[in-house]
Design goal:
The structure is a homodimer. Chain A is of the alpha/beta class and about 230 residues long. The first copy, chain A, is built from seven helices and eleven strands. In chain A, helix 3 crosses helix 4 (about 75-85) and helix 6 (about 130-140) packs parallel to helix 7. Chains A and B meet through helix 4, helix 5, strand 4, strand 5 and helix 6 of A and helix 4, helix 5, strand 4, strand 5 and helix 6 of B.
């Protein structure tokens, strides 16, 4: 978390978030702050509640894991405000960026994101699978370093296998892959593997997968993508 | 900068970086630290110098703007170590992620990165233009929210016009675009515009451009990309 985000939380009258994330930052709350923990599925309700309290004149911090602007709560709050005919000024909104899962994962395994990259969520809850598949093909074909968010849930298990098959069509089976779960947390798990063996590891909703580009190499437990396409010995 | 990165700099014996970035964090140096400022073009020399000093047994902090793992210094240091036959352990390396330009830019204009996105550098100094053009086409076709790094330099002015033309082939001319220069710095400049008018604004190497996807909308000076493709009124 950045010092700016920490200060915003410290100054808020109300802190709203998913209970697990609030637990992680409990030490930062100050006496007298209103803390409202909501279950993980109720993102829209959290946004609505935050706006309601802000309209009462309270300063509200909506906490999101990673970067709130990347698949996070910032967009939900702004969407909700927009649907209410918000004028853009009252209530006043500020977005504080943070370290998103692909950065946390990358920093734990080396420097896989040194060249053009993309992020694709494999969750088809709100996005048709055809759109996701189209993006996987585009990313694989155009040799983007690719981070996969939400790769697998208890009920949704086929998407990661399809993603692997698509990448194998365009990229070497030996392409380095990082499978990172709960980066920087006590239960962190890191696996370096290859595209061919991607689905052999333990993968769930807390996992981020990074697939290298054609120049990415594994060296002594580090993943390195060179800056350019010239002068790389391979 | 995260508290973890701040602590790493505070604990280092030597801080190495581009002079302008070192100037920005001057207040964090402690008495007695060795500070080595090198010109902006000498990235490889900075990496080599850092490794040399680390091999003497000193703790060295290599400072990079944004996220050192995204088009930053982390990859150069690891590449250089790799070319020297590094065993992955000595000298010990840690990578501290930070807020990269696309996140800083996004947070200043709303929440454009709420759906799948990619980052493409338009600099063809180390990457053949055909590779970059291929990625632009893939990103435009597959409807990624797209962040363009290094969009224009004094000598390299055509790439951004070509990128605009490619995106206009696949995306609505009214697609929202954010042009953000020096986010969070005193000389910050923010322009919200459209794909059709992208090249009318002032664009240089310190600018990051974010092009929305087909669902991205401008609302009262905020750019919002909805979470999914379902249930968006448009």
């Amino acid at each position: 978390m950045t010092p700016a985000a920490q200060a915003a939380i410290a100054q808020a009258d109300v802190v709203i978030g998913y209970s697990l994330y609030l637990e992680l930052i409990r030490s930062r709350f100050r006496p007298g702050q209103i803390i409202e923990a909501l279950p993980i599925t109720q993102e829209r309700q959290r946004a609505e509640r935050a706006i309601e309290l802000a309209q009462w004149g309270l300063t509200v911090a909506v906490v999101s894991s990673g970067d709130c602007g990347i698949y996070g709560m910032a967009g939900l709050v702004l969407e909700q405000l927009r649907s209410q005919g918000w004028d853009g000024n009252v209530p006043e909104v500020q977005v504080f960026p943070g370290i998103t899962a692909l950065q946390a994962a990358a920093s734990r395994v080396g420097a896989p994101l040194m060249h053009d990259f993309c992020a694709i969520s494999l969750s088809d809850l709100l996005t048709p699978w055809e759109v996701i598949e189209h993006r996987l093909i585009a990313a694989a074909q155009a040799d983007f370093v690719t981070a996969l968010y939400n790769p697998r849930s208890q009920t949704r298990t086929q998407q990661i296998t399809t993603a692997q098959r698509i990448f194998l069509t365009y990229r070497n089976p030996e392409t380095p892959v990082a499978i990172v779960r709960s980066a920087y947390r006590p239960d962190e798990q890191i696996t370096l593997t290859t595209l061919a063996k991607l689905t052999e590891g333990a993968i769930d909703m807390l996992t981020t997968i990074i697939i290298g580009n054609q120049s990415t190499r594994i060296h002594a437990n580090w993943i390195i993508t060179p800056r350019g396409y010239l002068g790389f010995a391979g």
